[in-house]
Amino acid sequence: MGRRRRRRRVDPADAARALPEAIAALSQMLPAGPSPETFRRAKFDRPEAAPALWRLLFRVLSPQLADGASASFSLEAQVRSVKLALRTQGYPRRALAQLPDDGSQGGRELLLALAWLLARGPLPERLLTQNRVQLGDEMPVCECEALASPGPPAPSVEADGCVDIRHLQWLMGKLRFRWRNLMASQQEQCALLGKIHSYTRGCHSDRSLGHLSVTETELLRDPEGGRQLLRRLERENARLQAALQWRCRELVFWRWMDTVLGACPPEASQPTFLPRIPTPGAGELETLVRELQALQGELREAVEARRAAWEAGVRGRGPEWSAARTALREAVGRDLAALRRVCERGGGRSLAQLHGPHRLVRTEAGAPGGPGLRAPEVIEALRSREAHLEVVLRQLQGQCGQELARLVGAPPGPVWILPPGR
Amino acid sequence: MATAYVLLAGSSRRLVAELRDALDSCAERQRQLERSLRVCRRLLRAWEPAETLAPELTPGPETNEEAPSAACIPSPQDLKELELLTQALEKAVRVRKGISKAGEGDKAPSLKSGSIATSPATRASAPPSTSRRAGSRALETKPPRGIRQTRVPVKDLPERRLLSVGDQACMGQGAGATKPESGLRNEQIVLSAASQAPEAFTLKDKGILLQLPEAFRKAASWNSRPAGWSNHVAFWFVGCACVHPSLWAQLSSTQTSDSVDAVTTAKMQFLQKMQTTSGWPGSRLSATEVEAEVRHLQKACLLLRLRMGEELTADPKDWMQEYRCLLTLEELQAIMGQCLRRLRELCTAVVEQQLGPWPEGRFPRASLPCGGGADPIWSPQLLLYSSTQELQTLAALRLRVAMLHQQIHLEKVLMAELLPLVSKQEPLGPPWLALCRAVHSLLCEGGQHFLTILREDKPAD
Fold first, then answer.
1. CB B363 to CB A284 under 8 A?
2. Given A28, A138, A231, B12, which is the most exposed site by the fewest CB atoms within 10 A?
3. What gap in Å lies between CA B295 and CA A287, rounded to an integer?
């Protein structure tokens, strides 16, 4: 506590040193961070700072790329990708979009863009998390990955021609086959993990873990791989330390950035020229509109029918009824408050504590065990999730069945014989 | 019924793109799993001192045995299909065995029998441990055989594979006496490995003696400890060498102090200043924001539908419950109305801002941070499991939930694209019937079953 207070008291000599230190921490914690000198040159808009900063922004904006993979992109491709990504995220400065694509210019603009990204969210932490050295056998217990399904844009080589519906059926069959394969591999992997965990019981120096993970065991089997892992771990530790230092020193950086921004003349407003920004496919928005409208229609129908039935039978209830009615109304309000919050703000989570990566630890049956999530809890949560989703899918299929029957049933047409077992 | 029906170009592109997406994400998961499986299998085989030579590169007798047959090579496509087929068969067998063996193995994990280079005699004398070991060894030696299989002429494959399936299944009862071929071959590999390098051992025998190197232990514990521990460690003991929290824990800790507030303010001011000096009109929705909002509304829609389903299927016992159900539905309707309003606002905003559709027809989704973006947990937590079976159940459920999410998404897309086709088409011709049949199968049966259509008037085709 005392140390922190001392740091905040600014004396001139400290201040002179503080900025270079902050920038050094910044460049060390970023992936492929350029030298602190580059940042200084960028402030003065020197062209030699530009290529390094374009590359840095590319790395920062495409975190899913593995180390070294960005080298396979030409500088020009990286520049274009950075521009597009920044526009997609709503970056406000037009000057950046007007920089040449060859990456030869734009030191100051790039510095501003980097600062914009840093100011908007926990960028360093996110970058560090995404490239984390994974030591344990981990299992995410949430559905975030299932919902996000990050995929690269579909290749445009897709044939423009028409497609036979049998092709769709074939693709669906292939998909089912892949899931089955996946299921089988997953089961095998669990069996093997279970073995490795139990064979190495008690080997871990950390008592709460007990056994080794696959990565740790592999490190012992393959010493060269182990040395590489250690080096990666040490690099990550250095970056983590830098990130912690950055946290203590970043205020100076923001004051400095304020002067950098002040050095730029304000951009002239040009409301007539608006470049197209990519948004979710129009199909997706339309689908959502249709979906919500359909749901609203169903709800209205259900409510109207029930309200009418209720009104018909409600006569003749005594005065105690109005008190009960108020109580019920309040109870329903409480009951749906959480759902309302989730729908309005999107802050709520259905599986509140079940997020993030979890390191698998095998415990003796019946042993008390330390802190951590228990598998049965997760299994239970997933079971209820599964049941809910199955209901939704069946509802959708039923809806399709009705719609099809309506379309087909109108003329005195053929007889439909449904497949057995349904 | 064989009449091919051709889809419209526009909708087909979207459908095919969505399906390909789904296939790709499956394939990516599979690749990751295969990678990890390779490592696991290698770890469970005998460890040899010559580490650079991976065991699967030296299966010795087996490659010689297959060399002559390599002369007749089937076409690459045949091989690919074959590989898929064999993989599927292989996996089916493995899963079955894995499940039955896993339960067995858990009950007596401490029962470790002898060294790996046991002679057939000792195996015969100890049938219970033999069966278990045979099972695990069958798993361990899979990859070399997989390599061999691709070189085998096409015709031989299924029989061989199925034969080995049978072999493994009867190994447990047969003890050592009627030793099947594949079992013997496995034994040879292990024995030869053992004779070449006397120090070879398996994880099962010596795993418990393993120790992580000191340098690694230090780096790892500085890097991260299980979160359950570090959370209890007070952060003001930072100076004390004995209980320092790990780096990840420090980074994850949410500090609240004056300096943090000052930094937050400085960042806000910077963003504002940037916005006001920018040449583009302010307060525009970015594509990422639109994307996030769409995701959120999709989720809200799912939740509302689930809740509505629950209410509609509920069977009210008395008028109180009946009234409560009615009130709930009305409340859901109100929430629904708000969602729709938000969506309409979003649509107008998108139109007003002249946000064009993504040129490729597909938006590159940023990988959303886990936890809905709120406060990501950086240091991994622990997930405790007590048996292999439990782990398998957990993993299977995770996949199942992911698969259902995908199925629901695809169902919606298919619905939106295929139902209009049925209504537009001139009814009752053979192409229309074929279309109906295909659409019914895709939409109502998950593509797994087909309905039969009977026409009484005259033959359809």
1. yes
2. A231
3. 12
Whether ipTM exceeds 0.85: no
Rounded to the nearest 10°, the torsion over CA B329, B334, B338, B343 is: 40
Q: Are residues A15 and A50 in the same domain?
A: yes
Query: In which residue are the tokens 């039978």 written?
Result: A313
- Residue where a domain stops, chosen among B149, B183, B201: B201
Verify that B65 and B174 share a domain, yes or no.
yes
Q: Is A180 on the interface with B (CB under 8 A)?
A: yes
| Cα distance between residue B459 and residue A58, in whole Å | 63
Domain count within chain B: 4
Mean pLDDT (whole number) for B150-167? 35
Residue of chain B whose alpha carbon sits nearest to that of A226: B216
Angle between helices A123-130 and A107-120 (to 10 degrees): 80
Interface test with B, best of A186, A201, A329 (most B CBs within 10 A): A186
Q: Is residue B286 part of a domain?
A: no
Shared domain check, A9 and A59: yes
User: Vertex B129, ends B391 and B209: CA angle to 5°?
Assistant: 65
Q: Is the pLDDT of residue B427 over 90?
A: no
With CB atoms and an 8 Å threshold, state whether A112 touches B274.
Answer: yes
The pLDDT, as a whole number, for residue A314 is 67
- CA–CA dist B298, A144 (Å, integer): 14
Q: What is the spatial distance between Cα B316 and Cα B285, in angstroms, rounded to a whole number?
A: 45
**8 Å CB contact of A310 and B326:** yes
Instruction: State how far the Cα of A19 lies from the Cα of A17, in Å rounded to an integer.
Output: 6
Tokens read off for B151: 């070189």
B412 falls in which pLDDT band (50, 70, 90)?
A: confident
Of A197, A236, A335, the C-alpha closest to B329 is A335
CB pairs under 8 A between A and B: 722
Q: Which helix (H) or strand (E) holds A130?
A: helix A123-130
What does the pLDDT average to over B340-355?
Answer: 76
Q: How far is Cα A364 from Cα A352, in angstroms, rounded to an integer?
A: 27
CA B36 distance to own-chain centroid? 12
The answer to whether A81 contacts chain B (CB < 8 Å) is no
Task: Tell me, yes or no, whether B18 and B58 share the same domain.
Answer: no
List of chain A residues whose C-beta atoms are within 8 Å of the C-beta of residue B25:
149, 151
Nearest to A191 among B26, B392, B422 (CB): B392
Cβ B438–A185 below 8 Å, yes or no? Answer: no
CA distances from A203 to A194, A238, A410, B369 (A): 15, 27, 71, 33
Residue A224 in contact with residue B51, Cβ under 8 Å?
yes
Q: Distance, in angstroms, between A47 CA and closest chain B CA? A: 22
Which neighbouring-strand residues pair with B385?
A: A362
Residues B124, B133: Cα–Cα separation, whole Å: 12
Q: Which residues in chain B touch residue A213, judged by CB atoms under 8 angstroms apart?
A: none
Residue-wise pLDDT for B250-296, tens only, equals 887 766 567 778 888 899 999 888 888 876 665 567 777 787 788 88
Can you tell me the mean pLDDT for A34-59?
A: 88
Condensed to tens digits (0 to 9), the pLDDT of residues B356-406 reads: 433 333 334 444 445 444 455 566 688 999 999 999 999 999 999 999 989
**Residue A48 is assigned to a structural domain of this protein:** yes
Rounded distance, CA B113 to CA A414, Å?
68
B22-to-A196, B29, B352, B434 alpha-carbon distances in Å: 32, 11, 32, 25
Among candidates A186, A278, A347 on the partner chain, residue whose Cβ is nearest the Cβ of B395: A186
